[in-house]
Design a protein that fits this description.
This is S-adenosylmethionine decarboxylase proenzyme. By secondary structure, this protein is α+β, with helices and mostly antiparallel strands. The protein is built from three helices and eight strands, in the order αβββαββββαβ. It is elongated.
Length: about 150
């Protein structure tokens, strides 16, 4: 983690929302982080969020803070984040790495568009991240596609 911090790759917004301890005594004691919902068991929920007619797409610091806040709102545990600012158009690409997976973003300010990818497992609800992001981006049109990843037969 120190090497990441020196490279500026660690967010100043880490969290300890979930204390995860994995017992080493036996496989039978391990917690299953798969989700059971609506008669299905799956690894987690993956949201693909398209934000159209959006604003604030060129400020990596604001985007970092907002995506970290969105992760916390969803109940996730932040491990670190990293964002890159492109020139000359000002787009931003970045990721918030979570214990429960990730939130990533790619922005095109010249098109007023952002593509956000939210994947979370366990007790997190990635849908709770969307209103937090909408506060910053003020998208005129929001499209969300939801997938359940890692489906298993019950």
């Amino acid at each position: 983690m120190n090497a990441l911090a020196q490279l500026g790759m660690v967010s100043e917004h880490p969290s300890n929302n979930q204390a995860i301890s994995v017992p080493v005594s036996s496989d039978d004691d391990r917690k299953d982080y798969f989700v059971e919902k609506d008669g299905e068991k799956f690894a987690g929920t993956h949201l693909l969020v398209d934000l159209w007619d959006a604003t604030n797409l060129d400020d990596p610091e604001k985007i970092d803070r907002t995506l970290c806040e969105a992760a916390l709102a969803a109940g996730a545990t932040i491990l670190h984040s990293h964002f890159h600012h492109f020139t000359p158009n000002g787009g931003v690409s970045g990721v918030v790495v979570l214990a429960e997976s990730h939130i990533s973003i790619h922005t095109w300010p010249e098109r007023a568009f952002a593509a956000v990818d939210i994947f979370m497992c366990g007790a997190c609800d990635p849908n709770l991240a969307i209103p937090v992001m909408q506060r910053l981006f003020q998208a005129g049109r929001l499209e969300v596609d939801e997938q359940r990843r890692g489906r298993v037969a019950l």
